[in-house]
Amino acid sequence: MNQRENFFAMIEGKKPEFIPNSMEVYKSCILGTSITDSPLMGGVDSFGVNWVATKEGAMPEPNKFMFEDIADWKAHVHFADLDSLGIEAAAAKELEDFTQDNRNEQVVNVFSGCGLFERMAAFMGFENALCSLVEDPDACREFFEALADFRIACHNRFIDAYQPDVLTYFDDLATANGLFMSPKVYREVIKPSHKRIVDAITSRGVIFSQHTCGKCEEIVGDYVEMGAKIWHSAQSMNDLEGILEKYQGQLIVEGGWDSSGAASYIGATVEELIEEAKRCAKVYGQKGNFILMPTLLNENGNSLIVGDPRLEPMLKAFNEINHI
What we know:
Layout: H1 3-11, H2 22-25, E1 26-29, H3 31-36, E2 43-44, E3 50-54, E4 57-60, H4 73-76, H5 87-94, H6 100-105, E5 107-112, H7 116-124, H8 126-135, H9 137-162, E6 166-170, H10 183-202, E7 207-211, H11 220-226, E8 230-234, H12 240-246, E9 252-256, H13 270-284, E10 290-293, E11 297-298, E12 301-302, H14 303-306, H15 311-319
Parallel strand pairs: 1-5, 5-6, 6-7, 7-8, 8-9, 9-10
Antiparallel strand pairs: 2-3, 3-4, 11-12
């Protein structure tokens, strides 16, 4: 099996031949979301929020809020005309050297950053956003519904332009210790709009992948119920072994890397990376629904984006022991 065939065996609940890794199985596409959601290199986004580039990635300018009361969102939030953003040109540029032969080998994965809760926090800061979920849930629901309409329109343009196999939707709802909000608040306030986004993607025949960092295991079942087939950036503070077992044949767990351990430190050695990759293969990989995704930084930023000479020997060692 090649990378694509092996991936789709996993999606179909069949036994794959080997444990894939995110760097080789995917053609990851990021330029579309950089235009519609969060500029990768920093700058003002389509909503007027200024993003500051850091080595770890772009983030909204700290303490610069568009509004502080969610009841005021309609006076400040204006949705861009998608025809004016250049999504199709970005897709064409990103895919210009990606041939049909490449599509037969790899899985096209389009990223969609800054989801419902992240966008609320980008507008008004985390403290105001979290208080709003409890103090004015009706206004939050109205905001999320309107934002979901926009995101669905963006996703349809992404799907038309990229013809992807997978769309990975980013919304970080947790810290390393647990969810930002209770599962009850998530289910009552955010989930209805979240589900509309999932439904719109899967109705186009595209696989939905949910990116959520942190300890979010309490709502992984909600993701599966809504139709997610992949949990992207699944971190080891969750019960990954239990989740892999419980949702075998239903959900692919992508991640596993100990992002708080020595293998994620800037100065980590090649040997430490190889040992972590082997640990992931041994502990998570044998159930047949796991994709390795390293979490690694170097002096220039995220190694998966900026490159890192340690990755090649790590992948070589991983691919020697990744057969199932």
